[in-house]
Amino acid sequence: MMPAPKIGGLVPFSSCDYPGELACVVFLAGCPWRCGYCHNPHLQAREQHDAAPQWDEILIWLKTRRGLLDAVVFSGGEPLIEPQLPEMMRAVKALGFKIGLHSGGAYPKRLQECLPYLDWVGFDIKSDFMLYEKITAVTGSGAVASASLKLLLASKVALECRSTIHPSLHSEDELIALAQALSDLGVQRYVLQAFRSAGCAEPALINSAQLHFAQFPQPATLAAIEQQFASFQFVSALAA
Q1: Rounded CA gap, 231 and 30, in Å?
Q2: pLDDT more than 70, % of the chain
Q3: Is residue 2 part of a domain?
Q4: N or C: where does the chain have the smaller number of CB atoms within 10 Å of the terminal CB?
């Protein structure tokens, strides 16, 4: 018998985590990567949070939300770390909800198992895949992320790619090159979101962001990136 899924938290109502749909967000605990700018470091450990409901309790609650919510979004941490995620999605789908996923693609094989149930994915792109280790601190992270993105593009599941950017981690040229690479792969929707200090456990990143974000990225960089996609959005530090 498999252990119960490790739940890190539940947001019962959200209008911004699945575009155009009213959703709840289930946070799954655990992440194999250690990105310095992470704003959910409390979800990196693979453990059930005491304040979070159990999965069976969430399923019972979801039955009362039919007709009130449109979708259930699985987030994290890295939700693909949860071995039971495909079965969790199957159960949610059986209740009539759409299914969204927030993921960095750390486990391509599990993502492939989830594809039949997915309606929309917000995919976290750290940087050029060759430079992932600089951000994740994990060797090989770029290769698995690349494999996951290719699975999503081939599946035709609705997809939005997002990159959290920081002036100490990304140069203007790197951002333009990344946008070109994603466009060449077939990405249509892309969001750049400025680093948020809330939750971050790295003082150096917080301090350097405060010094440089007024000039980062430059308007010319954003204009060059926008040309590559059917839909592009920049979420500034002020908006975040």
Answers
A1: 31
A2: 90
A3: no
A4: N
pLDDT single digits (tens) 170-206: 899 999 999 999 999 999 999 999 876 555 555 555 5
Helices (H) and strands (E) in the chain, counts: 8, 8
For residue 35, tell me if it sits in a domain. Answer: yes
Look up the CATH number of the domain holding residue 114. 3.20.20.70
| Closest among 52, 44, 55 to 11, alpha carbons compared | 52
Give the relative orientation of helices 55-63 and 85-94 as an angle to the nearest 10 degrees.
20
Give yes or no for residue 2 having a pLDDT over 80. no
**Range name among 36-40, 64-68, 167-171, 216-220 with the lowest pLDDT average:** 36-40
Nearest in space to 45 (alpha carbons), one of 56, 34, 58: 34
Residue 128 within any structural domain of the chain: yes
Q: Does residue 138 carry a pLDDT above 80?
A: yes
1 domain residue, yes or no: no
Domain count, the chain: 1
3-state secondary structure of 103: strand
Q: How far apart are CA 139 and CA 130, in angstroms?
A: 10
